[in-house]
Amino acid sequence: MMFPLMSSMVVSLVLQLALISPLIHGFTNHLMVTPQSPVVQIGTNVTATCVILNTTEVTADDLYWKINSSIIPKEYYTKINASAVSVTLHITDEVGAWLFCAARSTSHYINPSKDRFLHGIFIKKGYHPEKPENLSCKAMQEGRWISGNLTCRWDSASRQTESVPTSYTLFVEEHPGPIFNVTTQDTKITVRMDVFPHHTSLVVRVVAHNSLGKAESEHLEKEAKEFVKTFPPSNVKVFAEEMFPTSLLIEWEHPIERVYLKLAYQIRFCPHGSHVWRHVSVPEEYTEKDITSFRLQNLRPFQQYDVQVRCKSRRGGYWSDWSANVTQTTPEDSPASKPDLWMLYAGGGEVQLVCKDPEMSNGRITAFNVTIQRSGNDSSEQEVVPVQQSGATWMSRQGITPLRRVSLANQKFIKACATASNSVGTSPKACLHVPSSPSGRHRVEGMKVWSQDGQMFVEWKRPNSSAVSEYVIQWSDRTHTDWQRENGRTNKTAIKGKLQSFVCYNITVYPIRAGWLLKPTSLEAYLEQGAPLEGPSVTRTVPGYDHAVLEWSTVPLERRQGFITNCTVFYRRNDKPPGTYADPPKAMAVPANATSITLTQLSGNTKYEVWVGMSTIAGMRNGTPHTFNTLKHAPGMVEGIVVGVSLCFLFLVLMVIILCIYKKDVIKENFWPQIPNPGESTIGNWSPGYPLQAETPKENCVTGVSVLDVGVCEVKLGFEDDKTSLSLKKDKYLSEEHSSGIGGSSCMSSPRQSVSDSDEGPDLADSTASTVQYSSVVASSGYKGQTPGSQSQHSIFSRSESTQPLLDSEEHPDVLLQRSPRETVFPPNPDDFRPLGGEQQPFCPLKEDAEQTPESDSLQDDTGAPLSSYMPQLAGYRPQ
Amino acid sequence: MNGHVKNMHFQQHVERAATLLCFLLLLAVDTTKTVEAGKNQGCDSDLQKTQKLTRLIHKQTGDLIKAYKASEGEMAQLFCKASRSDIPDPNISGLEPSERMASIYTQLQAFSPHLKRVQEQQMDLQPPKSLLLDLIQKVRDYSVRLTSSINNFYHNFFPNLPLPDPAGGPTTLPLPQNIFQQKIYGCVVLTTYKKLLNNISKDMRTLKIKVCTRAR
């Protein structure tokens, strides 16, 4: 295969060289590539030959080929002779390329004149044109005539490249007559003829051509009129004729005179606004004799129709556009079908009878004639209800006429019948038996409602036991009700009324048997569900320490837009400062019908934000967020703490008491040391001459250094100044409270609190302070014939003003002997004897004493009358 | 093999040849009929198209005369009733269909320069885009096509009869005229041309019957 091809190429090359050899002598270039500027079909091979001219510096072996900037490998070369070499390339891509022949620099001659050893050609690449398909031409009407411009278009299957574009030449040949042609690179062009060649044959063809060849389309040979598209029929009129209520007369005018074109006509019509057109072609014999009218028949009386007409050449051609809409109403006729009588439960045992116009009303219904017959009563009530066309109520807007409200109380049933009347006649009668309690045996079961493609469908199972003559499917929202009838063999239908999305409809199927209403079955359904318009609002929160009870309000039905699938309670801590990242909310799903929930595991004393989301299958809507604070303490927590502390305190007290009981000896020994009873002392016996009665209580009081029993003192001594006495008593109690021994208390050692805290002035206090360091308490009667029986009544402690130390061995046993068991005992703790000027307890002024009076009183109450007290030392030193 | 047998073989060959000959004759007759039917169908179609085209030009010429009269006002009726001798005769001559076809062709040819002259004169008298000028142009264009159509038909159906030259030599156009004369001339040319078209249209029906029936 390749050999004959190569040999023919060589021959042609030789011929070319022979032809160009006289020319190339004048060239300065030593290389020449042939053919010059070849156009190559993509997918084929191209062969170029490089010839060495007028030089012996290079041979064919020194030549090499480059395409653009790439050197072509040697295996593609063919050496023709010593001065010629060819290359064969397979063209695959669409981009044009430069093919160069060059010589390698083998001698000193080539290098300086390199350009003379280089020659290139540009290879144009393209596709052979393919036959244009689907040629079609059209001549439009212009004014009164057909335009001489014939616009043609076609499909081009051929590919083309930039370097080898394809052009199209359209030829329009009149037969007989001139030939017109135009050229374009598009696939659509208009040929301008002087006039449109009426009554002439046209042959139209298109030729695709480029550098690689040409291809011609099929010839489109037609009568010229077959290319014409005229205007639509003009002045279309539609007439209603009273004598023919089921027909309309259509008239029109030719859009163009018949000498140019004979036209065929088509009419389409539909009930006004329905856009479901019925087409009627006007037979040619009707228009043969220039008749431009047609009567549409078998139309519905009193129906508004839209009518349009179009035309085209009888012999082919294009249909014109449709004429403008013309609307006309057919004349009225008598109603041909029964009115649609129905009832709506009105509450209170009443039904509202309603009626729609008959399907074949054939005119405007002006009135309904209603007849009502009650059970057990042969007589009937008749009423004519005029039809209001105001559209003021939803019923009238839906074409429903309320007839009458009838009570079913004390009635087994009522029978209602109605006829509809228009201006021409009256319809057949429609009747309905409405029982007060419809039989439930024949109710439909297995009712299903679903939506699909914007329509709501209802399906049910037919009752087995009864022959249902028809079904009424009623749908109602909160404000509107409508219904439709289906025959008794149906068990599935689409609701024909205009339903709205996101509205809850109550769909009810009423079986009717021989005009008797049976028990209905109902379901709620949505045509389309959406996310609720609003979320539930939290109405109440009852916060606890670690929990909170939430209550929210239900969303109104009209705002739900679907069946609520569930509610979700979201809550999160809201105690972070504004601007900081809030915690993600926790969610808790609750049933759709729930209106409260108890949130648990909350933190105490924390602000929480909570909201409730309500979901349908279409989405969720959150309610308004609500915040609350959990309690600082749990209920009972404070009480628990108090009880705990109290219990601890009680336990402590008990422990102390028990300790005291078990260690009473130690305590007694420490706090109430054993003091020798002076009465049992031998001193009493030692000075028998000293009369016991010589010391009178009065004398004791006068001395003023003894602390007396108050009662005794009041009686026997008769204090002049009660105030002073009270003060002293108070001081005594303070001393008892604070001191731990006789004169050993810091308070006792304080002149103000012990013995000098009186109104008698600081002098005494000062003097006492200066002399107390060796003070001791001496029972005034201790050395004066003490009697044990009277000691308990008249224990008197006197403070000596002596600066001499007492003898322990002599004094203490006496004091101990004089003390009664109820007397406060002040052990002689040396530590308690502190210097006055040293560490002193804070001074307790009288005012404070007064404030403490109740306490003192209570102490008095607790202890009864004081058994002993310190009395102020009123007199000075008394010699013993 | 005796002579009787040879004779039988000969008879069989003769019968076969006769059958073949009959078949070929039938085929030839049928082919001829088909050609004739096709030619007849073309005759009807061509003459019908020519007739329709004549009616179209007649209609357009009528519209042109109306537009012409409308442009000239009340005086147009007077112009158009005038007669002139330098305008071709609208009548069709000849007895044979070929002669009448030739006459139609010749008359159409004769009117062509007159229509051109009227157009030229009206171009000076009418605004450039007037309906009148448009109509004259269309009448001229369609007249060319009618002439071509008749010529084509004539050559198809009377191939051995060359179309004669116009009687009395080439059409002579009137000398330069004043505007009044131009108006009269224009209207007379158009009305005469319309008469010619009317005559052609009538003649076409007769020719259709005569020529196409003869072809059948």
Automatic annotation (TrEMBL), chain B:
Coiled-coil stretches: none
Keyword Protein transport part of the UniProt annotation: no
SUPFAM superfamilies to which the protein is assigned, alphabetical: 4-helical cytokines
Functional description taken from the UniProt entry: CNTF is a survival factor for various neuronal cell types. Seems to prevent the degeneration of motor axons after axotomy.
The keyword Lipid metabolism is annotated on this UniProt entry: no
Annotated signal peptide: 1-37
The protein, known as: Ciliary neurotrophic factor
Family annotation (InterPro entries): 4_helix_cytokine-like_core, Ciliary_neurotrophic_fac_CNTF
Domain of life assignment: Eukaryota
Organism: Cyprinodon variegatus (Sheepshead minnow)
Gene3D superfamilies, alphabetized: 1.20.1250.10
Subcellular location field: Cytoplasm
UniProt keyword terms in alphabetical order: Cytoplasm, Developmental protein, Differentiation, Growth factor, Neurogenesis, Signal
Family the UniProt entry places it in: Belongs to the CNTF family.
Transmembrane segments: none
One cellular component term from this protein's GO annotations in UniProt: cytoplasm
One Gene Ontology term from the biological process aspect of the record: negative regulation of neuron apoptotic process
An MF annotation (GO) of this entry: growth factor activity
